[in-house]
Amino acid sequence: MTRRLLRLYPGDRALLVAAATLLAAGWAMGLLWAPPDRAQGDLQRLMYVHVPAAWTALALFTTAFAASLRVLWKRSLNADHLALASVEVGLMFTALTVALGALWGRPVWGVWWTWDPRLTSTAVLFVLFCGVLAVRRTFEDPQRRAMVSAAVSVVAFAMVPIVHWSVVWWRSLHQGPSVLRLDGPAIGGSMLATLLVNAAAVTLLGGWLVMRRVRLARLEMRAENRRLRARLAEVPQLAGISPRELRG
Amino acid sequence: MADWAYVAVGFAGSGAVVGGYALALALRIRRLRARPGDRRRP
């Protein structure tokens, strides 16, 4: 049953095994090995799931941006599938980031949510990329769908640097960058190592999910083409025309 | 102790969300592979 459900290609399987192994190690390090924070105690362990989810989400929106530029330049449907997959998986990780942030914020800040620059910009980013998926649903023609959603993705990507720099540009309740700093990371060695292992694991997991979503997008397009071909065959004047020719 | 409850919910919830999404993808892929003819008509 599980084997049939997963039915993985060798590349998929290697990526999944690497991600699962790193994640198991990362979670063990985060829960058992890394020391508790001096100020926040064990609550700080939420960082090992919250931060990797946030980084992966931003990396996936950057991938969607690059794929969208390729769609606009080359009109490539393969790039469109990659953009769709990156946006969808990126949204899943963004939702996870916000939920984990709320879970962390409640005991530390005393609130589940506050209109802080980092939280607000992340919410806007989430809504914009939800818009990309919404726009996709309004077009039946794959080529037009790809072009319009690529244009919206490029616009939505403008929020990514704003989310990243929000804690630097504005006064924020959210802590500032603690790893990507010019003067070096501001967290201890064992905490940093744990964070980086978890970040690598979640990045690989994100990559694996994107590969699966791309595969699904291809299967959906084939099914769509089959349906269109079957409908064309019902009209004698149009029989023999391929869906691609029809879309012109 | 309450701190660990938040941590447990965070880790388990993350696993459930990502696992649920991966399962949903697997089911949708299987459904499309299982019906190559895709007889549904819009």
Structure characterization notes:
The complex is a heterodimer of chains A (248) and B (42). With 248 residues, chain A is an all-alpha fold. Chain A is built from nine helices and no strands. The radius of gyration of chain A is 21 Å and the shape is elongated. The longest helix of chain B is centred in the middle third of the chain and has 33 residues, at 2-34. The chains are: A mainly alpha (248), B mainly alpha (42). The A-B interface holds A 4-7, 27, 30-31, 41-43, 45-46, 49-50, 53, 89, 92, 95-96, 99-100, 103-104, 106-107, 205, 209, 212-213, 215-216, 219-220, 222-223, 226-227, 230-231 and B 2-4, 6-7, 9-11, 13-14, 17-18, 21-23, 25-30, 32-33, 36-38, 40-42.
Descriptors:
heterodimer, A: 248 residues, mainly alpha, 75% helix, elongated, B: 42 residues, 79% helix
What topology emerges from the helices and strands here?
The complex is a heterodimer of chains A (248) and B (42).
Chain A: H1 2-6, H2 10-33, H3 47-74, H4 77-109, H5 117-136, H6 142-157, H7 159-169, H8 189-233, H9 243-247
Chain B: H1 2-34
The global form of chain B is rod-shaped
Helix content of chain A: over 70%
CA-CA gap between termini of chain A: 42 Å
Distance between the termini of chain B: 54 Å
Order of helices and strands of chain A: HHHHHHHHH
Work out the strand percent of chain B: under 5%
The strand count of chain B comes to 0
Short note summarizing the structure:
Chain A is mostly helical and 248 residues long. In chain A, 75% of the residues lie in helices and 0% in strands. Chain A is elongated.
